[in-house]
Amino acid sequence: MADYTVPERQHVVLVTSDLQRDFLEPNSPLTRCSAGRCIGQCATVVSAFRRAGLPIYHSVRFFLPDGSNVERSRRQAVEEGMRVLMPGTSGAELVDGIAPDGHKRLNALKLLEGDAQELGPNEWAFCKPRWGAFYSTRLDEYVRRGNATTVVVIGSDFECGVRPTVYEACARDYRVIVVPDAAGCQVDDIALNQLGRLGVYLIGADALSLWLANPRSEQGVA
């Protein structure tokens, strides 16, 4: 099995999930158990990809005020006045440390129409309508267009963002890496064992940075 799942450094992309302010700020109703603690490690991974000149895709959410594009489990709350991830608001923007320096605000209209927004060299944002980054998006098209075989997944919410994206990536026969210290606060040994059964590689943020900087290094790939 290992031959089919070993990450390929020359064909790797990063997919981030739920790294917007409304998912991370302490007073937001969407914030999960101190999720902000992982931002430093997420920033480490994003910076490593930028230095290596490798593709980065930020999956983001927008909630329309009438709740019409919100999943059923949150729809009523939005209909009754929960105002999070509203297009054009600061809460819907990528959190500081993840957004590229000097990038323009997210173009919610463009993203809600299904287009990708270029944020910097080899870096884009796109809108996902549900938990996983591949569901009803063009992410698979973008990744395959660049001949990538390996997807690194990080984010602020393991249960509702990282894990669904991992399952979708595995279902599309990608080699998958999860960075446990940059995957939200719900990651535990049971969850990691389940990922291992899928053939997912687990690499810490610092070790992944070394691996990206030195293609011949296998340090941290386990």
Q: What does this entry look like structurally?
A:
The protein is an alpha/beta fold and 222 residues long. 33% of the residues lie in helices and 14% in strands. It has nine helices and seven strands; from the N terminus they run H-E-H-H-E-H-H-E-E-H-E-H-E-H-E-H. A seven-stranded mixed β-sheet has the order 3-4-2-1-5-6-7, with helices on both faces. Helix 7 links the parallel strand 5 and strand 6. Helix 3 packs parallel to helix 9. The radius of gyration is 16 Å and the shape is globular. The model has no long low-confidence stretch (mean pLDDT 92).
The amount of beta strand, in percent, is 5-15%
Structure class: alpha/beta
Mean pLDDT: 92
Oligomer: single chain
| Cα Rg | 16 Å
Q: Give the beta-strand count.
A: 7
Note the total helix count: 9
Main sheet overview: 7 strands, mixed
Shape field = globular
Concise account of the structure shown:
By secondary structure, this protein is an alpha/beta fold. Helices cover 33% and strands 14% of the residues.
Features:
single chain; 222 residues; alpha/beta; 9 helices; globular
Structural topology:
Elements: H1 2-5, E1 12-17, H2 21-24, H3 39-52, E2 56-60, H4 72-79, H5 108-112, E3 117-120, E4 123-127, H6 139-145, E5 150-155, H7 158-171, E6 175-178, H8 189-197, E7 201-202, H9 205-213
Parallel strand pairs: 1-2, 1-5, 2-4, 5-6, 6-7
Antiparallel strand pairs: 3-4
